[in-house]
Write a structure and sequence with these properties.
Length: 311
């Protein structure tokens, strides 16, 4: 029912809130320039920031991608459907608006059952950035999408809270070598088990990955990255005004605390991250103090989002 309604809206060039396993997306017909323009307008997103095109599976990606490499095929084979976006040469039919004029397109096959149903019922690729206003916290529930974008979106499919909670990992290829443009839902260690050593982007694609703008994922409240020592030493008066986000055993006395995972489980921490930032933003604290996780597994993606929230 809802899916049919969503398909009708998408065919009419409208945008629809779509659950995925990473974060909620704001979906529109990838081959309709007016629908793409609507996505940018609703998000207040600058046109230089390219969109990820979502497809049901590897075969459907051929509508967007002109050329595959064996390594890209292997990564898709292993991680699709799932939280991995591949940057590959685009077909000429893909509107320039989707790729911000780049000859490359970002594609991914999400595994959330509602996204799969929608993509199959629609029968073509859907462009979908995260369903937040530009630069703000990504939504991981349907309610958060409504809070972010409100009446501008005629329908938000409710697929429950997102299982992973941080955006897809983005892998591009420079001179045939894989590079990680964004740490995300597939840990680097898992990508490297398939692809061998993966580099970090060395600047050559930076204009092409503006989702990597230093400031992003930002609450209204100022976020400050701190060490465990700083969090322990803050005086009690200041503590009573501040919020704290971290995991494991956390210091006491803060006005509001979001423990991402008392048991230090990376998946649990990632799944809670954006909801926790929203919660602390609504808690009326003067500053949010953030304790980074270890720089491994999904901790990389969580720390990346915290650092960008703190700029
Ligand atoms: O998990 C996700 O990837 C979520 C869900 C909805 O699928 N989507 C998402 O989209 O995070 P968005 O718009 O918030 O992030 C898109 C980012 C861009 O900012 C850019 O960094 C990268 O993906 N990107 C997309 N197309 C690209 C291209 N052609 N070349 C380089 N980077 C690209
Ligand atoms: Mg985003």
């Amino acid at each position: 029912m809802e899916i049919e309604k969503a398909v009708g809206l998408l065919r009419a060039g409208e945008v629809v809130g779509m659950p995925t396993e990473t974060v909620y997306g704001l979906a529109g017909d990838a081959f309709s320039a007016p629908a793409l323009a609507r996505i940018f307008a609703v998000k207040k997103r600058p046109f230089f920031d390219p969109l990820i095109l979502h497809v049901a599976d590897r075969a459907a990606a051929d509508r967007c991608v002109a050329e595959w490499t064996p390594l890209a095929e292997q990564l898709a084979e292993k991680f699709w459907p799932g939280p991995l976006t591949l940057i590959l040469p685009k077909r000429p039919e893909v509107p320039d608006l989707a790729t911000s004029g780049l000859p490359l397109v970002g594609v991914r096959a999400p595994r959330h059952p509602a996204a799969q149903r929608l993509l199959r019922a629609f029968g073509g690729p859907l462009a979908a950035p995260s369903a937040n206003r530009f630069g703000r916290i990504s939504p991981t529930t349907a309610a958060a999408v409504r809070e972010e974008l409100g009446a501008a979106v005629p329908l938000v499919l409710d697929g429950g809270p997102c299982e992973i909670g941080v955006e897809s990992s983005i892998v591009a290829f420079i001179d045939g070598e894989p590079v990680l443009l964004r740490a995300g839902g597939v840990p680097l260690e898992a990508l490297e088990a398939v692809a061998g050593k993966i580099g970090r982007e060395g600047g050559r694609l930076s204009a092409a990955a503006p989702g990597q703008l230093p400031q992003h994922y930002a609450p209204r409240t100022r976020v400050r990255i701190v060490t465990p020592e700083q969090a322990e030493e803050l005086d009690w008066v200041a503590r009573a005004q501040a919020g704290l986000i971290g995991w494991g055993a956390l210091p006491e006395g803060y006005k509001a605390v979001c423990n991402l995972s008392p048991a230090k489980n990376f998946a649990e921490a990632a799944a809670r991250l954006f909801g926790a930032l929203r919660e602390l933003d609504a808690a009326g604290v003067e500053e949010i103090w953030a304790l980074p996780l270890p720089e491994e597994d999904l901790g990389r993606a969580v720390n990346d989002r915290l650092r960008r929230a703190a700029v």
